[in-house]
Design goal:
alpha+beta, six-stranded antiparallel β-sheet, three-stranded antiparallel β-sheet, globular
């Protein structure tokens, strides 16, 4: 048996949660800096390049000397207002390389790090404010979009929690709550649609949350919101799982279309194929060595022009999956949030999450009135364990924490 086969990569192993949290800390640090660079007139490609450089530097500071893989779980992408999917232009495509940020547009910043194949990804939406309006209040339709997305994300996270996991009350109440079935994916979409319509917005069709596993960000389970073309989700979240939870909201209809431009974001599949072209084999070899099965941008390869040629056969043979550039069908502004979560016996832990929206700076007449939704939003995402208070009374710290004890401290901060 190999050493790798003997390692427990579930959340039962405290080292697993530690690695996820280390990757999340890097993701958070880099996200904060990258969003600070997103100012009017800034070039998207420059932001993406600087973000990836910073990710690599931060990853290089942890687990030094350890024989484990580590790196970027998702390249830095900056998606303009109506763009839905992560966007990362190439320097060799002159038109797209000139893309710059415009004042007051909603841009989506997505990135992530991985330690030992355990990846966290985070996405935040920010409004590009002119220098003279820094820190100013947001109003009108922009405020509607930001509030709808924030509350929809909070609702979705609570709907991800297995029934009864954080229930309060008597033992009978807890038992009753645990016996309930998890909400169907149709029910989840229904509640979220009702919420975003409170702000005259719509869900982005086909927005998908995935089960995360080691070296895999699109696992066996998925939740598809507002599914189109017969697509559907599979499975429900369970204790012991890590998920990438995504919400997408549009000021338009939420319908999507694919732009006729070069896909620059790719990911290796599990398909094996004897590639015929030497350039294809060389490109694939570099991809396997640098990125494993995590997403990457063609600009991250040594020779960008050669990479554009080398991936063609790889995509045709399904050795690589290319991510098409998808936008809102009406070219309306879109907001997206992506949170990596862990589900433990104490509830939901946000491993990597976008910063909490300052709702006091969003001015709108619209509000949520549905009682069922308001009741769910009031629910906690984790049990308050009081672990920190207990620890203060202890004279000595235990030499080793279990994964659950480590999570109790995190959960008490939720």
């Amino acid at each position: 048996m190999t050493d790798e086969a003997a390692i427990d990569y579930t959340l039962n192993n405290p080292d697993t949660l530690t690695k996820y949290k280390t990757a999340a800390q890097i993701s958070h640090k880099v996200l904060e800096l990258v969003t600070s660079w997103c100012v009017e007139g800034a070039k998207v490609i420059s932001i993406c390049q600087r973000g990836d450089k910073l990710l690599e530097e931060e990853v290089g500071k942890v687990y030094k000397g350890k024989k484990i893989t580590k790196g970027i779980s998702h390249p830095t992408t900056v998606s303009p207002s109506s763009f839905i999917t992560p966007y990362t232009p190439l320097s060799t495509d002159a038109d797209e390389a000139s893309t710059s940020l415009k004042a007051n547009e909603a841009i989506k910043v997505q990135l992530g790090a991985q330690i030992d194949g355990l990846g966290t990804i985070v996405c935040d939406t920010i409004l590009v404010q002119p220098d003279q309006n820094k820190g100013a209040e947001t109003s009108g339709r922009e405020a509607d979009l930001m509030l709808a997305t924030y509350y929809a994300n909070e609702l979705l996270l609570r709907l991800m929690i297995p029934p009864g996991l954080v229930a309060s009350g008597s033992e009978e109440d807890k038992k009753k709550a645990s016996a309930e079935k998890p909400p169907s994916q149709a029910k989840i979409t229904h509640l979220l649609e009702k919420l975003v319509k409170s702000y005259d917005c719509n869900l982005v069709e086909g927005t998908t949350s995935w089960l995360f596993e080691r070296n895999e960000i699109e696992g066996k389970k998925k939740i598809v919101l507002a599914p189109a073309d017969g697509s559907k989700g599979e499975g429900s979240p369970e204790v012991g799982e890590v998920w990438g939870v995504e919400i997408g909201v549009s000021l338009g209809t939420g319908k999507v279309k694919t732009l006729d431009c070069r896909p620059t974001l790719h990911r290796r599949t599990t398909v094996t194929y004897q590639l015929k072209r030497p350039s294809s084999r060389q490109t694939l070899s570099e991809i396997v060595k640098k990125f494993g099965t995590f997403p990457f941008s063609l600009r991250q390869l040594d020779d960008e022009r050669a990479a554009k040629v080398g991936v063609v056969e790889c995509v045709r043979a399904n050795v690589l999956r290319q991510y098409e550039v998808v936008v809102d069908k009406d070219m309306a502004p879109v907001a997206r949030l992506l949170t990596t979560i862990a589900l433990t016996r104490n509830g939901l832990t946000r491993l990597s999450a976008p910063p909490t929206l300052d709702i006091s700076k969003c001015r709108t007449e619209k509000k949520i009135t549905d009682e069922e939704i308001l009741k769910i939003l009031q629910q906690p995402v984790a049990r308050s364990t009081g672990a920190k208070a207990k620890n203060k009374k202890k004279k000595k710290k235990p030499a080793k924490k279990t994964a659950e004890e480590d999570d109790e401290e995190s959960s008490s901060d939720e």
